[in-house]
Amino acid sequence: MPKLTFYNLPKEKQQLLIEAAQQEFSNASLSEVSIANIVKTAGISRGSFYQYFEGKEDLYFYLLNRYTARRKRLFKATLEKNSGDLFQTIREFYISTVNEDELLDFKRNVLLNMTEQVETKFIKIVNEEESEEEFNTISRLMDVDKLNVSGNKELYHLLKILMTVTIRNWIEHFARNLAVEESIANYELELELLKKGLARS
Amino acid sequence: MPKLTFYNLPKEKQQLLIEAAQQEFSNASLSEVSIANIVKTAGISRGSFYQYFEGKEDLYFYLLNRYTARRKRLFKATLEKNSGDLFQTIREFYISTVNEDELLDFKRNVLLNMTEQVETKFIKIVNEEESEEEFNTISRLMDVDKLNVSGNKELYHLLKILMTVTIRNWIEHFARNLAVEESIANYELELELLKKGLARS
DNA sequence: GTGGACATGTGACACAGTGTCATGTTAAGC
DNA sequence: GCTTAACATGACACTGTGTCACATGTCCAC
């Protein structure tokens, strides 16, 4: 988390820094990005940077949190719009995800260099395990009757599977430079497989 | 890939370097590892290192390849032993995976810092997309009748889903420091969900 | 055995990036 | 205007990288 000094900054200066950072993180992965470049682009001194953030990881996860928080709101709204239909929701969510062209290079870099720490952040979009409350909020929004699960534990694992497959498709979208339509078609195929089951009965 | 000079080295010296490298990569992630440390442990000079490898990534992927090649052989053997039963095979494969305690810290570091480039290597254990031949060899070994798919395309996506979920469980095993039994129980639960389908019919 | 030619080994070096800290600047309260 | 605390700055010591001119080893022709 950024330090207090960062939040004390005038909004415009915060925004400037955020934009500079997003630009740098669009051109390189976390380990390749240099603080030297960020401060140069943002027009602040090296020392100031360390007044605001612990280091570049701190800034990186701050940006990531901003992004996932927005996505999470969209997910909840979509779920409500679809009266709790999880599969319809996650399908629409994926389509809007691959169509969104804001911060494209930033997302590419994040996804192609995603580690467990980062992936956990994304999975928490639907599955805020750490807070029982959040999990309950979302599972109350969902129409559980349509899902082939009994109990919260199975529900939790179902969500984990869905998010894992979703993220992996999103990563592949970038890794293999898939066209939006192809990426969606692949994802829908996998969703159908997941819904109907992988084993022949 | 290592340079020719590395393969020209006497086997014992190769082994020494490999062991030194595995030790370093057990203590730190790819981006944190220092060549200085590797050469110190291996007792060679910095210059020599660059005669053998392009850089530390080169060495890292060399080690990774050695490991995944062994795993791949095991997977094929298990599949044959189980007369092509994919679910039984992957279940046994996962159990042997989390029970194997060789190179434990190395695997932890690899998994917790897995990027798309690394994950692709692992997924290719069953799904060597680049070589049509490999894919056919493996799909011939499998008893496809037990799987709820029609055609190679669906089969490909089924395998992708299975590997994705398997790897994610393996990562979580390390990330959350799960006991072997708990990890296996979680995985089996997810396998059953996958087999029977996520949607209620 | 000597010379030469080629392969391999070596560590000093220039360079790039990090995090810190002593010192300078600003602004608000009184 | 003075005080004080918060913020800004860039030089600095440190750590690590990849390279290169030179040293050493190896092998074969003569």
Derived structural class of chain A: mainly alpha
Give the N-to-C terminal Cα separation of chain A. Answer: 50 Å
Count of individual helical segments of chain A: 11
Helix content of chain A: over 70%
- Element-by-element helix/strand order of chain A: HHHHHHHHHHH
The largest pleated sheet of chain A is described as: none
Radius of gyration of chain A: 19 Å
Low-pLDDT parts of chain A are none
Protein chain pair with the most extensive contact, residues per chain? A-B, 41 and 42 residues
Strand content of chain A: under 5%
Identify the overall geometry of chain A: elongated
Task: List how many beta strands of chain A DSSP finds.
Answer: 0
If you average the pLDDT of chain A, what whole number results? 94
Oligomer: homodimer
Explain how this protein is built:
- Chains A, B: This is TetR family transcriptional regulator.
- Chains A, B: Pfam families: TetR_C_19 (PF17924), TetR_N (PF00440).
- Chains A, B: Residues 34-53 bind DNA.
- 2 copies of one chain form a homodimer.
- With 201 residues, the first copy, chain A, is an all-alpha fold.
- Chain A is 72% helix and 0% strand.
- Chain A is built from 11 helices and no strands.
- In chain A, helix 2 packs across helix 3 (35-42), helix 2 crosses helix 7 and helix 6 runs parallel beside helix 10 (152-175).
- The radius of gyration of chain A is 19 Å and the shape is elongated.
- Chains A and B meet through helix 8, helix 10 and helix 11 of A and helix 8, helix 10 and helix 11 of B.
- The structure holds a DNA duplex (30 and 30 nucleotides).
